[in-house]
Amino acid sequence: MPSTIIERYKRILAGKQKRFSPYEFEDIQYRKQKIQLVLRYAFEQVKQWTPEEARERLSLKDVKELKLHLVREYIEPPVEAKPTDVYYLVEYAYPFLPRPTEAQKVLWVYQEVLSGVRRHFPPHYFQSVKGEERARICFEHLWKNILQIQDVRSLPRIFAKTEHAYRILRSYKLKILVDTLYFSPYDLITELYPELADPQLWLEEGVEIEIG
Question: Taking Cα atoms as reference points, which of 114, 103, 193 lies closest to residue 154?
Answer without folding.
Answer: 193
